[in-house]
Amino acid sequence: MDEALTSIDRAIEAACKSDIRYIDALLHRIRGDILLRRDPANAAPAEDAYLAAVGVAREQGASSFGLLAALKLAKLYQSTARPVEAHDILTPALDGFEPTPELLEIAEGQALLAALAETDEWKSAAASRERRLKLQTSYGQAMAWSKGFAAEETKAALAQTLGLAAQSDNVAERMKVHFSRWVALYTDGELRAAREVADGFLREARLAGDAPAASSAGRAFGQTCLFQGRFVEAREHLREALRVYSPGWEASVRRQLGSDAGIGAKAFLAMIAWQVGDPAGAAAQFEEALTEALGSGHPPTIAITHMFQGAHEMARGDAEATTRAGNVVLDVAEKNGMRLYENLARMFLDWARARLGGADVLARFRGHRETTINQDAPLFAPLFHGRLAEFEAEQTSVAEALTSIDRAIELARAGDIRYIDALLHSIRGDILLRRDPANAAPTEEAYLTAIAIAREQGARSFGLQAALKLAKLYQSTARPVEAHDALAPALEGFSPMPEMAEIAEGQALLAALAESDAWKSAAASRERRLKLQTGYGHAMAMSRGFASEEAKAAFARVRELATGADNTAERFDAHWGQWIPNVFRGELGLARKTAEIFVRETTSEAWMTEAGVARRMLGLTCLYQGDLIDARAHLEEAARIYDPERDRDAKFRFGVDTGASATLFLAHARWQLGEVGRAQELIEEAVVRAVESAHGATQTNAYHYKALFEIFRGDAAAALSAAQSVVELSQKHGITIYLALGKLSSGWAHARLGERAMGETELREALAAHTEQGNKLWVPLIQGLLAELEAEGQDAEGASSRIDAALALAVETGERWTDALLHRIRGDILRKAHPDDTAPAEQAYRAAVAVAREQGARCFGLQAALALAKLYQSTARPVEAHEILAPALEGFEPTPELPEIAEARALLEALADTDVATVRM
Predict the structure, then answer these.
(1) pLDDT category, 918, cuts 50, 70, 90?
(2) Distances from the Cα of 488 to the Cαs of 481, 562, 572, in angstroms?
């Protein structure tokens, strides 16, 4: 034993000196085994060693080594009559593990855990702990309502609750703790940390199948995103929270996580509606939420809903509405001892009274700086300091006002509280103009910053307010053209309504600006130049390629001319002109942002044709990025709103027919998602539509995507037929970009049909022509197909380098839709190159399966699982072959469109005949 101890201590010391720490947990666990063997009667040294192993594993995230050490320690505790400690150490170590033959300790640990849970000691300790957890949770909530979430007493209570919850099996209580932890961070203005907690809360609630908790967690996540200025993401989570929510839940269940999740979600959706440019919708949604809150009879729900309405109205600048909300909050808070909400209500009311001209109210409003904002609710600090700055500029000192507004902007940045960033910069512009009316440059810069932020966030209402101020500034300095350019895009989609007086004011100013001679002359000149430049951009794209420098420069000029153009249609053309070179050059992140902007700008029914185009663009970009669910949703919407008669001429503006192309792309998304039969129907339907369009680019595009579809299916004859159509149509219509693509597909098909040398040559030449145009789109796929052919032609080394380059390029460009296919091809290449060492191929196949699962790419996933199952079968591992193949086949029915289904079923049956159950035992 002494020699063993010397050796293990030497190993630990050597690992420490050289910083080779990857097996630290293993070494400490071995040391514990030796110590226990040396002196079984004295368990303390072994316990220390095992605890060190568990601690190191937790720090490193080495879950498997951690489980091994925790199991040893649990056995030690069990042998010394300490079942509670045994259960406590083993429970977190087993979290997330499922029994598997590769780690037998999982099943052993679960069996031991079940046995420990049956002991009287554990049952008694668990019951006691649950009582303490419930009491502590209730105490923490009481502290929050009475002292505020940011109070030290609340933080201390929450810390104690977290410690108890970590050892609890009570899902409902753990959900409450998640909520309390989130709301403390959220209210304290620490939104980055709050977002992480909300994410974990949501995942655990979904995993537990707890619908009320999932609804509350979704609301928490969406609420956090809202205050971070992520309005689109916030809306998605809040809508999902409402979808999960059930008004039929018992009141106690609905309110166990702070307040009613459904009512809260509606209130926050109302705030988002206003931000994104729907003031009337926001007012109606708020009315519904407030009515339901009052009807609930639940004080926290009533207070919270009206509190956020008050914050919203204060951000809007509506003092009367803020007063109404503040009075409700104050009444509920005073009656129920909610000091936090009482202080916030007084802050809202003091601002409203000061705004309405109340005497001596400013000093009282400023007094909330310490008591309410800095201590109780830092979340509202940017709003408070922004509105304080306005009062200071008007009534006391511009210097003080600048200090306050700069502090507001800094607090927003530090806490990631970005929902009113555009408002704050707009206020800053007002203050700068008041400081020096003769020097408009600093004010102009502040307003432009506000507009840029609003565009980025999609905060259209704040954007309109800032644009109106900037237009007035330009008008006052004899710059009517710039005033019109700033105001026109900000007003798009708005109709006059009492909820937002700036709309009517902006439209009146725009009409006046449009009558000026300077604007009329500039507008006419710009429209002529914009139309000519757009036509030139189309010509360059078709003749030189969308990613060519000539096309890129042409469309850059289009965007420049379209900025601020009164002709919205031409600006939409510019969006398309910006998006498509980004796609072909492999700049998919930029392409997605452009498509998302286009979608946001086409919400009006007046732009249904353009809305379909925008959805088509966004859906295709998502498809390329491997976001298959989002791709399907956007493409289905594009197909839904397409009208053949209305949209007949759109193909001349936006490259191809939306109905045919959206159907094409949807076919690819559905095939990837495993909807094989429907995908085949859609691809044929799209080709028919394209032919009927009699539009060369639409037809060429359709046959190109059909060729890709057949390549994914492995049907070389069908791919060759489609590719030949692409080549013929490209030559007929002079569409250079598609000529290379047609030859790429035909090269692969020829090689697959037995003409390997000719096919590979054609494929390489077409790839060179494609990339010479500056294109990176489809290059990972093409490189992968070429690598596959090279490996079959005995050039394993070249194939290996090529497939690695293909995967690296996919990471660089974000074109991830074929990742699972590429990893599977890599596995095939590695298996061929190293037939005696299957580990590298296995790793590649597993990567393919994992990517497919993550993306939902079921067809590529089945192909990869089949390859991996064959490998396992060839190495006498039928159990693993069965376990990887069975889930990949679920939901598939044999069909000629995907022959791998029948092949996989046959293999699965063969594996079952080997008596997998017996092998597993």
Answers:
(1) very low
(2) 11, 12, 14
Question: With helix as H, strand as E and coil as C, how does 318-340 read?
Answer: CHHHHHHHHHHHHHHHHHHCCHH
Closest among 53, 58, 55 to 32, alpha carbons compared:
53
SS3 for 872?
helix
Question: String of b and e for 159-192 (b: at least 16 CB within 10 Å)?
Answer: ebbbebbeebebebbbbbbbbbbbbbbbbbbbbe
Identity of the residue numbered 386 = G
Query: Helix or strand or coil: residue 642?
Result: coil
Q: Which residues contact 422 (CB under 8 A, 6 or more apart)?
A: 450, 451, 453, 454, 457, 459, 462, 463, 466
Report d(CA 277, CA 493) in Å as an integer. Answer: 8
Residue 569 phi, psi dihedral angles, 5° rounding: -60, -40
* Cα angle: 136, vertex 141, 147; to 5 degrees: 115
The SS3 call for residue 500 is strand
Q: Which two tokens stand for residue 178?
A: 């998640």
Distance CA 556, CA 533 (A): 10
Contact 90, 117 (CB under 8 A): no
What are the pLDDT digits (tens) for 652-691? 888 899 999 999 999 999 999 999 999 999 999 999 999 9
Check if the beta carbon of residue 391 is closer than 8 Å to that of residue 354: yes
pLDDT above 90 (res 459): yes
Confidence of residue 172 (pLDDT cuts 50, 70, 90): low
Q: Which helix (H) or strand (E) holds 68?
A: helix 63-79
How many CB atoms are located within 10 Å of the residue 427 CB? 26
pLDDT tens-digit map of 521-558:
766 666 666 666 666 766 666 666 666 777 767 766 66
The per-residue pLDDT for 905 is 93
Q: What's the confidence (pLDDT) of residue 921?
A: 36
Q: How far apart are CA 428 and CA 666, in angstroms?
A: 47
* pLDDT band at residue 256 using 50, 70 and 90 as cut-offs: low
Amino acid letter, residue 789: L
**Alpha carbon distance 387, 377 (integer Å):** 16
> How far is the first Cα of the chain from the last one, in angstroms, to the nearest whole number?
36
CA within 13 Å, CB half, 642:
25
673 or 156, greater pLDDT? 673
What gap in Å lies between CA 743 and CA 766, rounded to an integer? 6
Q: Which of the four pLDDT bands, split at 50, 70 and 90, describes residue 627?
A: very high
Q: Domains (ranges, CATH) in the chain?
A: 2-118 (1.25.40), 123-276 (1.25.40.10), 439-515 (no CATH), 522-585 (no CATH), 588-694 (1.25.40)
What are the Cα distances from residue 781, in Å, to 267, 585, 784, 788, 803? 46, 15, 5, 11, 9
Taking the C-alpha atoms of residue 144 and residue 257, their distance in angstroms, rounded to an integer, is 13
pLDDT value of position 161: 53
Distances (CA, A) of 555 to 300, 546, 562, 609, 611: 54, 10, 10, 21, 21
Decide: 398 and 372 in contact? Cβ < 8 Å.
Answer: no
CA atoms within 13 A on the CB side of 772: 10
In this prediction, residue 96 has a pLDDT band, given cuts at 50, 70 and 90, of: confident
Instruction: Report phi then psi at 12, rounded to 5.
Output: -65, -40
pLDDT score at 917? 42
Instruction: Report d(CA 288, CA 299) in Å as an integer.
Output: 17
- In degrees and rounded to multiples of 5, residue 848 shows phi and psi of -60, -45
Report pTM: 0.53
With tokens 């929450």, the residue in question is 158
- Amino acid at site 757: A
Nearest to 208 by CA among 216, 265, 100: 216
CA distances from residue 301 to 201, 242, 268, 526, 557 in whole angstroms, order as listed = 20, 16, 13, 54, 53
pLDDT digits (tens, 9 = 90+) for 899-914: 999 999 999 998 887 6
What is the rounded distance in angstroms from the CA atom of residue 361 to the CA atom of residue 319? 13
